[in-house]
Amino acid sequence: MKYLFYFIFGVSLTANAQFNQKLISEKLTLPPQTKIEETICQIGKSFLGTPYEGGTLEGPEEKLVCKLDAFDCYTFVENVLAISLTKHSQNPTFENYIDKLIRLRYRNGNIDGYTSRIHYFAEWAKLAQAQKILVDMTPAFGEKMIKPINFMGTHRAYYPSFKTDNKIHAEVLQMEKKLEKYTFYYIKKENFSTYEAGIKNGDIIAFTSNVAGLDVNHEGFAIWQNGKLKLMHASLEQKKVIISDETLLEYMNRIKKHSGVMVLRVNQPLG
């Protein structure tokens, strides 16, 4: 683990890494919670008000980005989950958090170029389930998502990393081809009310997309407040991490490009 730490950050910590280490240490010393879902809500709430910033994982070369002073919806969920899992582990350290972040973000926990990073939420969920980190609750209630997932490959102009790089574009196409082996499910928004009561605090909610080729538009955590199901997420609209004023269903119905949801439940770690 020490080797991993020095490999990522070098012999001496950068100012950014020092900030991250201090912040993670603060999160790991928050009062312990018995259940992982309680910890997810605790850690998520501790980031309320943190600014929204998109594209923080993109750069001229693929390397681990550990940024905790701003999030998009994806990095918020990923970091809260990594911190929460670390807090419930037998080794609640910054180095362990880094290890968990890599294993969540990169296929087989291996950083090896742009397409080693997991770019589609649907695949991210499948691979996290294979690691026994979470379980996809959606197949029990929803229906199959019948659509090819190929938005990146068919919209390369949106992605600076392979806008003009044919080699990486070919790797993206190959990555998307492999997604065909998976079966994905979603709960249609018109059916959501039937299953809403079964959603628990800390469940990961991913909003499936009406956009051709795209699996998910947005994600966050379910949180119940005063008997109403809300969404804790990094909001592009409000430019910060929030717990929504509107209910999760109201939010989903308001955003026309949302077709429904995937619901993922984090497994209680064994230690």
UniProtKB/TrEMBL annotation:
Residues folding into a coiled coil are: none
- Keywords of the record: Signal
Cited Gene3D superfamilies: putative xylanase like domain (2.30.260.10), Putative xylanase like domain (1.10.3670.10)
Q: Does the keyword Signal apply?
A: yes
Q: State the Pfam families in the record.
A: AmiA-like (PF07313)
Entry keyword Signal: yes
Signal sequence range: 1-17
Q: What name does the UniProt record give this protein?
A: N-acetylmuramoyl-L-alanine amidase-like domain-containing protein
Q: Give the originating organism.
A: Lacihabitans lacunae
